[in-house]
Amino acid sequence: MKDGPQDYPKYVGAAVIWLALLSMPFWINRVGGYTQLGTEVLVMALAATALNFLLGFTGVLSFGHAAYFGLGVYGAGLTIKYLLPSTLAGMAVGVLTAVVAAAIIGLLIVHLRGIYFAMVTIAFGQVFYFIAFRWNNVTGGDDGLSNWSRQPIDFGFARLDILHSPVTFYYFVLFFFAVAVAIMAALLRSPFGRTLLAIRENERRTRFLGVPVDRHIWLSWLISCTFVGLAGTLYALLNNFADPHTLYWEQSGVFVIMAVLGGMRSFWGPLIGAAIYVVLQDYVSTMTQNWMSFIGLFFVLVVLFFPRGVLGIIRRKVVP
Amino acid sequence: MTQLILYNVFNGLIVGAFYALMALGLSLILNLSGVINFAHGGFLAVGAYLAFALIPYLGFWGALVISPLLTALFGLVIERLLIRRLYGRDPLYSLLLTFGLAFMLEDGTRFIWGPQTLPFSIPDSLSSPLSSSFFFLTGYRLFMVLLVTAAVIALFLILSYTRLGVRIRAGTLDLETVSVLGVNVRILRSLNFGLGIYLAGLAGVLAAGMLGLQPTIGSDLIMPSFVAIIIGGLGSLPGTLVGGLLIGVASGVVTVWFPSASEAMIYVMMGLVLLVRPRGLFGEEGRF
What we know:
The complex is a heterodimer.
Chain A: H1 8-27, H2 35-55, H3 66-83, H4 87-109, H5 114-134, H6 136-139, E1 153-154, E2 159-160, H7 166-189, H8 191-201, H9 203-208, H10 213-239, H11 249-262, H12 269-287, H13 291-305, H14 309-318
Antiparallel strand pairs in A: 1-2
Helix pairs in contact in A: 2-7, 2-10, 2-11, 2-12, 3-4, 3-5, 3-10, 4-10, 7-8, 7-10, 8-10, 11-12, 11-14
Chain B: H1 2-33, H2 40-81, H3 91-113, H4 124-127, H5 139-161, H6 163-173, H7 175-180, H8 185-211, H9 217-232, H10 237-257, H11 262-276
Helix pairs in contact in B: 1-5, 1-6, 1-8, 1-9, 1-10, 2-3, 2-8, 2-9, 5-6, 5-8, 6-8, 9-10, 9-11, 10-11
């Protein structure tokens, strides 16, 4: 597919998004936010974009991505606390843990479809929650894993103090976000990505064309879980804390609602959804004790009135 | 030791009965309407708290009868207002909607009755142990097992012999044909949903008597119910029943040796079942 004039709005949109992300630390305080909130938006956006690789572009409904997010969180936290006080080592271990778990569980579930797949992913996610919850003396159980923090990174010639400067940490996260997003975008443009779209549109026909559908779905699942795991490690670094609730099934639902809210047929949709969700949650939880009700109501309203998501609606207006 | 194992097996059986009761309701809704009702645990909590509110006026027995019915009524209203709009759409949307509902129901009960555990009084006639050597065999536990058994038998009788039940089973297999034959599918789905929620309400009242009342009572029970359905096989109600009892007993037995692994155990079982028999123990081949 050659790019033509019909694609220009897409380029403009991407340029605006990158500009906004690059300049975020300079304006977020003026609009009432703070840098850590911006970082959280990035982390959640990475997780939601990664989920959407599977959900929106392969058409496979996973409701258990919190497991791999949480494995990233605990992988990073446990490594930095007990093994090696190095940020990058923590991230590597976190991502690796998520990948290994996803690869094994993926083999068990990859031939399941539709609601069955959703249910199994939800249920499997809970294993890791219970491990984190019960293995008190290592994981801190219900209280979470605290008393550790991300470490400044020493390159030899330069030192990146991500611990004390929130702005530096923001750009640190933005770097990983950019790399991950670029990889996912490139994969989606490749023949492999086109095959995933074909699976989404018509699995049976794709299978008849000789595509090993199960293997493609497994790969897509693995890619998706890898980047969700990466987001998890960044989330742990952001908070200097590992919370068992990052492994709980509620978190999986949050990722899905972000993708749906932004528009799961658009590559940038999950970013928009994550931004809206994170800001809203931050606002509501300072206003009221009953933020769960508001979040729940929010879910219901999104499903009833914005099933196409923000970008889905905009796209419909622009391209009738 | 024997007594300890026996105690845990019996305990597991009771917990398994809860899982089964809840999973049967979930299964009914899932099979006919293709909706994974995340809010099922929320409805369970509603049933439990309604019973708590009704006991001062109606007593335990009155609440046991009325509360599940009110819960089912509430479920019918929710179905009519919200869930009905999503039938036939991507299951993603009903999942998200019921997910939001689960949040609202849990938080709603917390808002009304507070976050603390509330005592739930059961009649004296049920709370004493039946025998001194089997201290764990209180009247309430035995009563619960009997009631769950009765409810399950009633459910299967309804499904086998009443017109509604036959239509539900037929609709599970082929809803379009059932509709063409002149059955009002909307009403069928509503009643089926109500039936499922009734079971959740009933499980709620019983669970409250055993575990005490907490807003999270439902969300703690819903995941094992999913596992029960998966192990039993999607689409098979007897499978769901067996699955529920099986994971209950299994986690009970594991508690004897590794108490902290009792929850993780059921997910390991699910993994094994999926590995050996992906459609579940009683699931039909090729249905999912």
